[in-house]
Amino acid sequence: YEEKKLDDELSSKIFDRYLTDLDYSKSYFLASDIQSFEKYRLLLDDALTRGNLIPAFEIYNQYHQRVLERLSFLITTTETGFDQWKFNVDETLETDRENAHWVANKETLKDLWRKQLKNRVLSLKLTDKSLPDIQELLLKRFKSQLNRVQQTKGEDAFQIYLNAFTHNYDPHTE
Questions:
Q1: Deepest of 18, 84, 144, 153, by most Cβ within 10 A of its Cβ?
Q2: In whole angstroms, how far apart are CA 4 and each of 34, 35, 45?
C-alpha cells in the first residue's frame, strides 16, 4: 500500500474518482450538478476524517435521481415504439465519452439518451431483429434495470464511495 496523506490533493483525486465511478460515460450528471459538487472537492478528506458521509450521499442521491429519470425516459420512449423513427437522419453520437464535457442542460441530456437508445435499436436491427422484438427486448431490459435501481440501499452508495477512496491507495482494493 502506498503511504499517502489524506489531504486536499487526495481529496481532489477521491472526488474525481467518485464522479467517474458513478458516471464514467458522462450520461447522467449535468454540468450544473458537477459545479454544485465542486464545493466538496477539497473537503472530502476532512469529511472522511470526521466520518461525515453527507457529501458522498448528496452526490450519490443526485446520480440516483438522474438514473431514475433516464430509465423512465427510456421506458416511455420505448413503449411508444420505433415505427416512426427515422434511421436515415444524419446525426452523430459520441460513444467514447471519457473525454466529453458534462452536458449543459436537461434537454441536451435527453437528446443524448435518445441517441443512445437509437444506437441500441440500430445495433439490434443489424442482428436482423424486428422492431417489435427490439421493443420487447429493450423494455424488458429497462424495466429490469429500473427494478434493480429502485432496490439500491445506502450501503451500495457507501461501497462506491469507499472504493473511490481506497483506489487511491491501491487500485486493486475494494
A1: 18
A2: 26, 27, 12
Pinpoint the alpha helices (H) of 54-151. Answer: 54-79, 106-125, 131-150
Question: Could you tell me the pTM of the whole model?
Answer: 0.91
Q: Is the dihedral of CA 140, 97, 57, 169 positive or negative?
A: positive
Q: What HEC string does 6-59 produce? A: CCHHHHHHHHHHHHHHHCCCCCCCEHHHHHHHHHHCCCHHHHHHHCCCHHHHHH
The pLDDT tens digits of the residues spanning 39-87 come to: 999 999 999 999 999 999 999 999 999 999 999 999 999 999 998 888 8
